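Incident log, structure service

09:12 report received: a user says their structure output differs between two submissions of the same chain.
09:20 pulled the input from the user's history:
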Amino acid sequence: MHAKTLSASLIARFVDIVGASHALTQAEDQAAYLKEPRDRYSGKTPIVLRPGSTEEVSRILSLAHAEDIAVVPQGGNTGLVGGQIPSDGGNEILLSLGRLKAVRDIDAAGGTMIVEAGVTLAEAQNAAKGAGRLFPLSLASEGSAQIGGVLATNAGGTAVLAYGNARTLTLGLEAVLADGRVWHGLRRLKKDNTGYDLRDLLIGSEGTLGIITAACLRLFPRPAERETAIVAFANPELALKLFRRAEAEAGASLTAFEFWAHRALEFAVKYAPNVRDPFTDGYPWYALIELSHGGKSTRIANTIEPLLTSAHAQGLISDAAIARSLRQADDFWRLRESFSDAQKGAGGSIKHDISVPVACIPEFLQRAAKVVEHACPGARPVPFGHFGDGNLHYNVTQPIGMDRQRYLALWDQMSGAIFDLVIEFGGSISAEHGIGQMKREVLKRYKSDVEIDMMRAIKKALDPKGILNPGKVV
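09:34 re-ran on a clean worker, output below:
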């Protein structure tokens, strides 16, 4: 951790770079930047800088590097592992990228779009839509999550099954290194085998190796049609069978296969606004399936209905609700996207963003429930997630009547037991949220010494003074 205190004269030099109106020093102006969505991490900073260009970011880092001042980059402040929050030491500059808002270029014919780091995910989607194309990355926080942060954490979301995660959707980057130099890597190439892949190195590095200021993103044809349904089934084993059936019958048209336990639906209906249960009866498990096709000449209408009719006849599903309009499809997605926030109404929640091989999901869920009961009798698992890519949000709500703080004090104990099980299944302790502060020490337990040494060597090479987002990842 950097202990150097910024003098008034040095602060003034940073202010000169961005202008006084974009340098926040008062506590009331800084408050929104210093606390993350789950209220788990908070920090302090002498100044929040809001640069308006890559050149200003470069000047800030050049000065910070020369003066040995730590810098914490932040996008939309939607991260869930504290990677965007400074320490409570009060000696780290917070660098907000929210003013880098330009959509620099859209090449609809070439299927690419260049946007700056402060463009929100929803704004990027709308820009692509305006050009008649699709940018498929979708998250519940897409209205505030910014492209820079999305790439820094290699976010996944609901469309990974068909389109891949943020890394897959990025062709090139512009980034500022720790010493202020700018890497101009905004290439539009799908193939570029000229040495180490610096793009993939920076994506997912959580601002510890460089600060992303712009990206060249891949665009796709907009689906001419989509079919959306929510299905109910008795157990995760049947979900796996249904997923394999949908893969085989729908092929590339299968663009989403989300799933959740009944408790997630119960909490959403009770605590989230504008959602409702699509079924009259309750069932143990559910899945949201979406099929889509980009070609105007090939209709897929009714593709999903025979798939589900056959699945019901063979006992794979108990019930199904097929969206009969775009509005109803949006309602189904609103239900799915409400699960995380809705859990707040039921009390404290210990959350795990993990992944296991898809074929292992049923057994993992069965064994994880026993792990939870052993760690805290009466605690209520609320699993949901992206079944098609093995990413589970294995969240656990406190027992009814238990004190919230007493329950949350069990976080490390319960998470350690869950993570041990994840590793036993050959999985990952962080599927799409990153490492940040939350899992930095835990990472050492599950990565080999060789992997940790390699990561530290990369960090030292690109940030020898350790000024970029200290205390995060490694």
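09:41 both user submissions now match this output. Likely a transient worker issue. Closing.
09:42 reviewer note: The CA atoms of residues 25 and 47 lie 5 Å apart. The first strand starts at residue 23 and ends at 24.
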